[in-house]
Amino acid sequence: MEDREIMGVANKFRHHPPVGDQAAQYELLRAEGLDFAMVILGECPLSEERNIALRRLDEAVMFAIASIARHGEWEKEV
Fold first, then answer.
1. Are 44 and 50 in contact (CB under 8 A)?
2. Residue 47 carries which DSSP code?
3. In whole angstroms, what is the distance from residue 29 CA to residue 36 CA?
4. Residue ranges of the alpha helices (H) in the chain?
5. Which of 32, 38, 45, 60 is 20 to 30 A away from residue 6, measured at CA?
6. How wide is the angle at C-alpha 48 spanned by C-alphas 43 and 51, nearest 5°?
7. pLDDT tens track for 34-73
8. Among positive and negative, which fits the CA dihedral 16, 21, 38, 40?
9. What's the pLDDT score for residue 11?
10. pLDDT value of position 77
11. How many CB atoms sit inside 10 A of residue 4's CB?
């Protein structure tokens, strides 16, 4: 194993406390995710596909937050 690979894996499993405005970014992503989840619940019939859509939305929000937590400050692309 290479040191870079070990460091990458270790970064995934350590605690990343919010710094700067990260907590606000997390809340924005969660709020937008909830809004879209409510659209899915309101517009899609109860089905396996709806359940999958909600699960994947949950995963998308989780990974978006993880990207901020794990990779810290960056130049926003506008």
1. yes
2. S
3. 11
4. 3-12, 22-43, 48-71
5. 60
6. 60
7. 999 999 999 999 999 999 999 999 999 999 999 999 987 6
8. negative
9. 87
10. 67
11. 8
